[in-house]
UniProtKB/TrEMBL annotation:
GO terms for molecular function: lipid binding. Signal peptide: none annotated. PANTHER family: PHOSPHATIDYLCHOLINE TRANSFER PROTEIN, STAR-RELATED LIPID TRANSFER PROTEIN 7, MITOCHONDRIAL. It comes from Nyctibius bracteatus. This is StAR-related lipid transfer protein 7, mitochondrial. Residues 38-210 form the START domain. It comes from the Eukaryota. Its main location: mitochondrion. GO terms for cellular component: mitochondrion. Keywords: Coiled coil, Mitochondrion, Transit peptide. It is found in: Mitochondrion. The lineage of its organism: Eukaryota, Metazoa, Chordata, Craniata, Vertebrata.
């Protein structure tokens, strides 16, 4: 399904190359195949190599986000490996408090991750327990990485952190040529509930400015 959404996004993108955000919404206000009752996507950032949309998640004050971006000076394999490399993330992400693979399934390649990330004072740090799975699809020239929150008996809730129980992420990487030549597009669809008390307009400002 993630791969199909990438193909759909590329088709829509070709309709408005060089256009503006309003033209994009006019060309396809949904940016995907929404189920009945889901809200349309709203563009909140439109740059040459980075476009960001959001849509409300029903019954909450939260949003789901979608990013469509491009790089021309990195290979798809390098970018993909950075997404998977938990040890390297500890070096470049100063907000990481803990990031460990706690279980692997050799049959499927699925991994369960425990991630603790710093939140600004006076909020508690947040911790995530999630399963991730990836696939390199040579036939369709795609790389796909999906994650979602799970529970795991070896990682009970800790009083010093706030457990994030709702989290989903799907990333699709499409090389411009091959996996080992510079240049690719990526589509990231993401949502989580960090259980903050910020009103929606504050969250919107943080996303659009950060």
């Amino acid at each position: 399904r993630s791969a199909q959404e990438m193909k759909h996004m590329e088709n829509v993108s070709s309709l408005f190359q060089g256009g503006h955000a309003g033209e994009y919404r006019q060309a396809d206000p949904r940016l995907g195949r929404e189920a009945a009752g889901e809200q349309p996507w709203e563009m909140i950032m439109d740059k040459k190599h980075f476009k960001l949309w959001r849509r409300p998640i029903g019954g909450t004050n939260l949003y789901q986000y979608r990013v469509f971006g491009s790089y021309t000076d990195v290979t798809p394999r390098q970018f993909f490996n950075v997404q998977l490399d938990t040890e390297y993330r500890k070096k470049w992400d100063s907000l990481v408090i803990k990031l460990d693979v706690i279980e692997r399934d050799l049959a499927t390649g699925s991994e369960v991750i425990h991630w603790v990330t710093h939140f600004p004072y006076p909020m508690y740090s947040r911790d995530y327990v999630y399963v991730r799975r990836y696939r390199v699809d040579k036939e369709n020239n795609l790389m796909v990485l999906v994650s979602r929150a799970v529970e795991h008996p070896s990682v009970p809730e800790a009083p010093e952190y706030v457990r994030v129980r709702t989290y989903e992420s799907q990333m699709v990487i499409r090389p411009h040529k091959t996996f080992d030549e510079n240049g690719f597009d990526y589509l990231l669809t993401y949502s989580d509930n960090p259980q903050t008390v910020f009103p929606r307009y504050c969250v919107s400002w943080m996303v659009s400015s950060g």
